[in-house]
Amino acid sequence: MSVLVDKNSKVIVQGFTGSEGSFHAQQMIEYGTNVVGGVTPGKGGQSHLDRPVFNTVKDAVEKAGANVSIIFVPPPFAADAIMESADAGIKVIICITEGIPVKDMIPVKEYVKSRNCVLIGPNCPGVITPGQAKVGIMPGFVFKQGRIGIISKSGTLTYEAADQIVKAGLGVSTAIGIGGDPIIGTPTKDAVEMLMNDPETDAIVMIGEIGGSYEADAARWIKANGNKKPVVGFIAGQTAPAGRRMGHAGAIVGGHDDTASAKMKIMAECGLHVVESPADIGSKMLEVLGSKAN
Amino acid sequence: MNIHEYQAKQILKSFGVAVQEGIVATTADEAHSAALKLKEQYGSDFVVIKAQIHAGGRGKGSIIGKEQRGVAVAKNADKAKEIASNLIGGTLVTIQTGPKGKLVSKVLVAQDVYYPGSSEPKEYYMSVMLDRSQSKNIIVYSTEGGMDIEHVAEHTPHLIHKETIDPKVGLQAFQARKIAFNLGCEGEAFKQMVKFVTALYTAYDKADAAMFEINPVLKTSDDKIIAVDGKVDIDDNALYRHADYMAMRDTAEEDPTEVEAKEFNLNYVKLDGNVGCMVNGAGLAMATMDIIKLSGGDPANFLDVGGSANATTVEAGFRIILKDPNVKAILINIFGGIVRCDRVAQGVVDAYKSIGNIPVPIIVRLQGTNAEAAKKLIDESGLKVYSAIVLKEAAELVQKAVAGNI
Predict the structure, then answer these.
(1) CA nearest B368 in A: which residue?
(2) Distance of alpha carbon B106 from alpha carbon A48, whole angstroms
(3) What ipTM is given for this predicted complex?
(4) Could you tell me which residues come within 8 angstroms of residue B154 by beta carbon, excluding any fewer than 6 positions away?
């Protein structure tokens, strides 16, 4: 079953004919993702990568039955692209674009709430359900099929976690890159909830970073809901100085609650298995699952 | 992007927010004539001289080697000149600058706004920012103005109020009135506060700000409401639509290595440690810094080379990290996905040869596409470069390097 995307997902690419969109659409097709077409306003009716190009998302939904969209539109136009998808009835919108102004995202967040859809990102690597669908920019070969769900704000750190899980002899059910911006469509807690309710997922890796309260909110939710599945947690940025933005727009320590240590403390108190070193994610998961089996 | 107080006030004023007026001076003589000009305009001999640096705590900070605070009142133009000559060219140390302090190259000569009148002047605190948990803007305000707001939050949290702005309709008049009532404003001051709050939120919205902090907001003795200080942070992602704000960037306030890194499109933050690092991806870069710390070292920097690490970016990264004399080892951590590890490895080898003698051990951890071939390439290069594939191995190598064992 997995979450968000699977072999039945009919994916369209917004910003299909641009260089990023083309490259990653090709990679997704090679992976086996069911890419049914793309949207580039003004190029409707053309064909690209042997798939139809549509002028609007609405056309793609009506003519190709699209239900998942991945967005590679440049930052000034990305907010509009998200709302177009939401309005057209797309159920899962994945926005890869990095650099969307906060002012543009505030109304987008409200807009998608009023539509029946899920927004993942922006500024994220996407979502992969190994063996079924890769709707993102991650290297597919790292993610072997299995029963561990992964949630992360960061791209390469998600790949790192997946690699360790696979090297530990386990595999991945669905990996969700939720994004590193101050405003994202699906906060950590919502992503955790999806994986907790997924019968194909036995345990979860939850990776966060400095800034905001999403990880603490998720940890409290996990505890309040009875710690149904083991969660291994890590927060990047234990050594980050206050007041400096560490790459991601959202990765900044303002107050005490933003720090890695504050978040890790809350996570541990809520019964998550917190690792101090990002090198220990895989081994910790094995240990946790092993002790559970005993 | 951070800007100076005088620039912040320019932005606020452009949206109708009342501010303490002032004139920027870069020499003591300019400060003298600025003070005279302000006297002409406002009829008072008194002016305030404020050092313009990108750091808070100026009023309590002082100039190295001089008994001079970063913000000082001058009772006349001659005194203004004297204070300005102490400040300009001096190094100001405040609670936020660290012990090295910051060079003062400009001062703001500002009107005296604490003049006596029919009522007592009163200071308030006000800021506008994104509340990340709600994904909505909020106005934070308090009657406890002019002091460290974190201190207020810790000791008297009930004195800090928050007003959430509904993005569908923006700030409403009743909200501005509520703020003015909660701050205890009356009569003319109440009207002026409503006007101030409304203009401030409009400015925040239109300017694509990431944060406004006005501390203090002052009610003058004749019931005007003005911003006496202003900290304005503009959303970097929105700068493309504000060329005028982009021109306000003062690179002299930034670390020179960070300015250079930006020219190479490298995301670099200078830190104080002894192990440099170069990583693809912001999250993995932070995680790599954590590994350095756990291995007994201290990260010398944050450096995200982005998704397209190649020989050029690797060489630029090396050169920037090596500018820091504290660096005793360098850890390169690349998780190759779309980027092929053997290409990055070749980039490392080429950059090493191009730079010549790199005096510190380099640990290269390449994982992902073609990782084995990459390791082979590095191991056979004959250079003083240590390779690893698994993150744990890299951590162990860092530990050895920090201890001086490789």
Answers:
(1) A142
(2) 57
(3) 0.93
(4) none
Establish how many alpha carbons lie within 13 A of residue B279's alpha carbon, considering only the half-sphere containing its beta carbon. 32
Over its length of 406 residues, how does chain B's per-residue pLDDT go in tens digits?
999 999 999 999 999 999 999 999 999 999 999 999 999 999 999 999 999 999 989 999 999 999 999 999 999 999 999 999 999 999 999 998 989 999 999 999 999 999 999 999 999 999 999 999 999 999 999 999 988 888 898 899 999 999 999 999 999 999 999 999 999 999 999 999 999 999 999 999 999 999 999 999 999 999 999 999 999 999 999 999 999 999 999 999 999 999 999 888 899 999 999 999 999 999 999 999 999 999 999 999 999 988 666 778 888 898 999 999 999 999 999 998 777 888 888 888 888 888 888 889 999 998 888 888 999 999 998 888 898 888 889 989 999 998 888 8
pTM of the model: 0.93
Q: Tell me the residue type at A46.
A: Q
Compute CA distances B5 → B61, B214, B248, B385, whole Å: 16, 10, 11, 47
Nearest to B368 among A159, A234, A247 (CB): A159
Task: Specify the amino acid at residue B245.
Answer: Y
CA-based angle A187:A190:A195, to the nearest 5? 125
User: How do strand B71-74 and strand B47-51 relate by DSSP bridges?
Assistant: antiparallel
Residues ≥6 apart with Cβ < 8 Å to B217: B123, B124, B125, B126, B145, B196, B225, B226, B227, B228
- Is the CB of A250 less than 8 angstroms away from the CB of B395? no
Q: Rounded CA gap, B177 and B185, in Å?
A: 10
Distance CA B88, CA B27 (A): 7
- When CB atoms are compared, the residue of B135, B208, B282 closest to A246 is B282
Distance, C-alpha B323 to centroid of its chain: 22
Rg (CA), chain A: 19
Q: How far is B245 from chain A (nearest CA, A)?
A: 15
* Amino acid (one-letter) located at A289: L
- Report helix, strand or coil for B226: strand
DSSP track, B163-206: EEPPTTT-S-HHHHHHHHHHTT--HHHHHHHHHHHHHHHHHHHH
Please name the residues between 102 and 141 in chain B that touch chain A, using a CB distance below 8 Å. 130, 132-133, 135-137
Give the integer Cα–Cα distance in Å for A228 and A270.
12
Q: How far is CA B241 from the centre of its chain?
A: 20
How distant, in Å, are the alpha carbons of A8, A64, A86 from that of A36?
A: 11, 6, 18
Burial class (CB in 10 A: 0-12, 13-18, 19+), A221: middle
Contact A101 B208 (CB under 8 A): yes
For A236, which of B150, B168, B283 is closest by C-beta distance? B283
